[in-house]
Amino acid sequence: xxxxxTIEELDRRFAIAGIAHAVAGNGGLPKVRITTPEAxxxxxxxxxxxxxxxxxxxxxxxxxxxxxHWQDGNAIRGGIPICFPWFRAKADDANAPAHGFVxxxxxxxxxxxxTARVVTVSMSTKSDEGTKRWLPADFSLVxxxxxxxxLKLELAVTNTGTTSLRFEEALHTYHxxxxxxxxxxxxxxxxxYLDNAESNRQKTQRGDVLMTKKxxxxxxxxxxxxxxxxxxxxxxxxxxKENSFTTVVWNPWGEGAKSLPDLGDxxxxxxxxxxxxxxxxxxxxLAPGRQxxxxxxxxxxxx
Length: 303
Ligand code: TA6
Fold this sequence. Notes:
The chain is mainly β. The chain contains 3 helices and 23 strands. The protein has helices at 7-14, 129-132, 253-257; strands at residues 20-24, 30-35, 39-44, 49-55, 82-83, 108-115, 118-126, 139-147, 150-159, 165-167, 169-171, 174-176, 184-186, 192-195, 201-204, 209-210, 215-220, 226-230, 235-242, 246-251, 271-278, 284-286, 291-302. A hairpin with a 2-residue loop joins strand 8 and strand 9 (150-159). The longest helix has 8 residues, at 7-14. The chain binds 6-O-phosphono-beta-D-tagatofuranose. 6-O-phosphono-beta-D-tagatofuranose binds next to strand 20 and strand 21.
């Protein structure tokens, strides 16, 4: 196990003067802070988690709870958590961490590069004795994020073992919205979904997704782009995706927020989760030596 580099060493190795720097973030956790003519952004090594993306001329696009915990072993509440190798609770182990074990630990910073007007940050993590307690498999993950007037997220999973690797994955994106009750999600009309707020009853989406109560829907067998229409912030957030066959939509509403100590009582009103994913019946089976990359591209347009 190599020594963990200090923030000063990370900045010495990866900084792009005036554009990208490794700095101490919340809880002293290291993050890469990006400042370019196109956007400002932040990505923590903890969970390789994007926590901010603000295209120039736009308001912040990513929701981040003011009550989040910032420590090893805890997930950051908000941003874009990476769920892997399972989604929600682990089917055969109630003691396993929800959404897997990669969002609660530090990843390795591998590169920070600038081409033209965008900055790309690449972080990685891989199986070890700790992960094998939960999943007896060999894998490596790379999360490559390109920050510009669009936000591109690529999650590459490589099966470095000798047997097939089955996993679920999600880019559990928290979007910042003006007021959730005024928001419409467009692009899922006619798509089947499992309503987790009603014991995963199968339903079919009719028209736009409106949220007027706790919403926890897993839309199935859809590769469609999704738009978050936000009249209060006068914008639409467009999420296109590749190699993703499910989209999860979630808001805990007031009742659900009360059970989340790292989410303020009223913060749920300013967030909408729209999650490119491969979950439930659409888990990925990856042969030894093969790689699978799921990606999402997010852009903001006037409404
Ligand atoms: O993506 C929706 C969901 O699976 C909900 O069921 C809810 O559990 C949410 O994720 C948040 O999970 P977390 O473990 O981050 O509190």
